[in-house]
């Protein structure tokens, strides 16, 4: 009920009626996997340098229906970020301003739920610009694959179980081939594969095996 109320408030505050489609019922069985690369990890000061999204319909990843854009940031690239995604100043100098990228991205996404890995960060980065354009944040439902993975693997784990939610670890655990990581298009595609694999596990009520904890050895003395 609260979610429905929030959506009604967002619709009321929407500055541009041309974007009312964001509030339409999503196409049945469709979601969008999305990923952003950024100048750094500060959601208030850093900028997006690349964004990619791919549609998922049912149990199919529609690789022919994807969105990719290089973005020219206002913020300087953080050296630590460059080490991660290997995008340098000269690589993004010909990118489009986010104001030109965003309308196309929003039309591609539509009202579909968003799927991502640590999606909260990507959405926060996008919402800074969405608010300037529309006066609201993205109203789309959000599906966090690391949360679904946690539930399938660690949901019934005893207290003290070591938890590993790293992207590479999840890929390996689910048997998904590792593409070039920290490339927005590759990350969106791998996240889409994670999503479908986890959805299949949920549908079959299957859990992801955990390594057995090593037994504690007790030594008695004489």
How would you sum up this structure, described in words?
Mean pLDDT is 88; it is low at 216-222. It is built from eight helices and five strands; from the N terminus they run αβββαααβαβααα. Strands 3-2-1-4-5 form a five-stranded mixed β-sheet, sandwiched between helices. The chain is 40% helix and 16% strand. The termini are far apart. It has one domain: Ribonuclease H-like superfamily/Ribonuclease H (Nucleotidyltransferase, domain 5, 2-Layer Sandwich). With 222 residues, the protein is an alpha/beta fold.
Helical content (DSSP H or I, runs of 4+): 40-55%
Number of helices: 8
- Going by CATH, what is the homologous superfamily? Ribonuclease H-like superfamily/Ribonuclease H
DSSP strand tally: 5
* Overall body shape: globular
Which helices and strands appear, and what pairs or packs with what?
Elements (H helix, E strand, L loop, with lengths): L1 H12 L16 E9 L9 E10 L2 E11 L8 H7 L3 H4 L5 H12 L4 E3 L2 H16 L7 E3 H10 L12 H8 L9 H20 L19
Parallel strand pairs: 1-4, 4-5
Antiparallel strand pairs: 1-2, 2-3
Helix pairs in contact: 6-8
How would you briefly describe this protein structure?
This protein is an alpha/beta fold. Helix content is 40%, strand content 16%.
């Amino acid at each position: 009920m609260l979610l429905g109320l929030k959506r009604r408030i967002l619709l009321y505050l929407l500055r541009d009626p041309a974007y009312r489609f964001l509030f339409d019922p999503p196409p049945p069985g469709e979601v969008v996997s999305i990923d952003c690369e950024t100048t750094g990890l500060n959601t208030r000061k850093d900028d997006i340098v690349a964004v990619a999204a791919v549609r998922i319909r049912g149990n199919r990843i529609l690789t022919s229906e994807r969105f990719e854009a290089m973005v020219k940031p206002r913020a300087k690239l953080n050296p630590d970020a460059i080490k991660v995604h290997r995008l340098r100043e000269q690589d993004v100098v010909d990118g489009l301003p986010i104001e030109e990228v965003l309308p196309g991205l929003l039309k591609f996404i539509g009202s579909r739920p968003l799927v991502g890995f640590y999606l909260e960060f990507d959405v926060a980065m996008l919402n800074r610009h969405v608010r300037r354009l529309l006066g609201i944040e993205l109203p789309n439902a959000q599906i966090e694959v690391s949360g679904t993975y946690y539930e399938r693997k660690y949901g019934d784990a005893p207290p003290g179980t070591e938890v590993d939610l790293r992207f590479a670890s999840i890929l390996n655990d689910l048997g998904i081939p590792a593409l070039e990581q920290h490339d927005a298009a590759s990350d969106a595609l791998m996240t889409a594969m994670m999503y479908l694999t986890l959805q299949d596990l949920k549908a079959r009520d299957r859990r992801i095996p955990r390594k057995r904890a090593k037994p504690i050895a007790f030594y008695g003395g004489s």
